[in-house]
Amino acid sequence: MDYTLPLFLAHAIALEREAAERYHELADMMEAHRNDEVAALFRDMVRYSRLHHDSIVERAAGVTLPSLGPWDYAWRYPPEAAGEETFDPALNAYDALRYARENEARAMQYYSDVGLNSSDPEVRRLAAEFAAEETEHVAAVDDWLSRTARPAAPWAADPHVDR
Ligand code: ZN
Question: pTM for the complete prediction?
Fold first, then answer.
């Protein structure tokens, strides 16, 4: 898909806004589980996503943005929450991080695809910059994952098994 600047900005704004909302939910959940360290990571991610969102909104000043339908890069809830648009309140830190990682990786993939494929040089420039940012987010989440105990039955291993 060849992204024009308005289309790209609209998607990037939606992506960052959604990331901020999901991280906010995840941070609240980790606090409820008394996992203050992972909650703090997610609060940082809320802040980064909001800052990024606001800077893209600023960049989009004067640009007429198209309205967007559902798209492939929107955050997906873990399979066990399918259809409910909410997290399982028992989501543990490891699975929350796995979930965040998956969505960060999808954002990174999205931005790098656009960065490589748009015919608009400004879109390519912005997308490459955003992809680099997402690469850092993936690395930050990976770092936490490596320090977080893996539960006996992570949802990603088999989403159809009841725990
Ligand atoms: Zn990110």
Answer: 0.81
